[in-house]
Amino acid sequence: MDPLDAHARFGPAATPLTSLFDPFWLAKPFLHALDPEDAHEITLCALESGFVPGQPGGDDPVLATTLFGRALTNPIGLAAGFDKNARVQDQMAAHGFGFVEIGGVTPLPQRGNPRPRVFRLPEDGAVINRLGFPGDGAEVVQRRLHRRGRPAIGFGINLASNADSADPAADFVALAQRFAHDADYLTLDISCPNTANGLVFLDPSRLGDLLARLAEIDWGASRPALVAKLSPDIDDALVERLVATLLGARIDGIAIANTTRARPADLRGASAAEAGGLSGRPLFAESTAMLARVRRLTGGRVTLIGVGGIASGADAYAKIRAGATAVQLYTALIYEGTSLVTSIKRELARRLRSDGFGSVADAAAAPAT
Ligand SMILES: Cc1cc2nc3c(=O)[nH]c(=O)nc-3n(C[C@H](O)[C@H](O)[C@H](O)COP(=O)(O)O)c2cc1C
Question: What's the predicted TM-score (pTM) here?
Answer without folding.
Answer: 0.95
